[in-house]
Amino acid sequence: MSLLISFIILFIGIMIFCNPEWYNDYRGIFYDFSNLRILASSTFVIVGLIGIVTSFRALNRDSQKNEMMICPECQQTITVYTAQDGRCPHCGGELEPLDGFYERHPELLDEDTEPGH
Ligand SMILES: [Zn+2]
Q1: Edge-to-edge strands of the sheet including 96-97?
Q2: Full residue range of the structural domain in which residue 93 is found
Q3: Ion ligand 1, residues whose Cβ is below 5 A away
Q4: Same domain, 76 and 42
Q5: Ligand 1 centroid vs 92 CA: distance in angstroms?
Q6: pLDDT of 104 higher than 60
Q7: What is the DSSP letter of 94?
């Protein structure tokens, strides 16, 4: 669910809850089903909030993936900001994206668990 749609859903929920005049045309129905207004508005608000939270979490996850790099030589993880030339500041090795690094280099996982390394 996109962030914009989530905000629109949340806004509709708040509108239904805070502005009963919005329901003018349906006043007869509104009086008969006053509980429905609360139910509908809270449903909209909850769905909107869930959408906003999940959208922000997805954005966070993506930006963290893009920010982190790893050096295959010394296996230091470095943010893109501290290594703008794409080289490791510790040993000068060429950096790779951290995402999926150990899938591409499974041999480095075993080396890393050796004692004294
Ligand atoms: Zn390095």
Answers
A1: 77-79, 68-70, 96-97
A2: 71-113
A3: 71, 73-74, 88, 90-91, 93
A4: no
A5: 6
A6: yes
A7: B
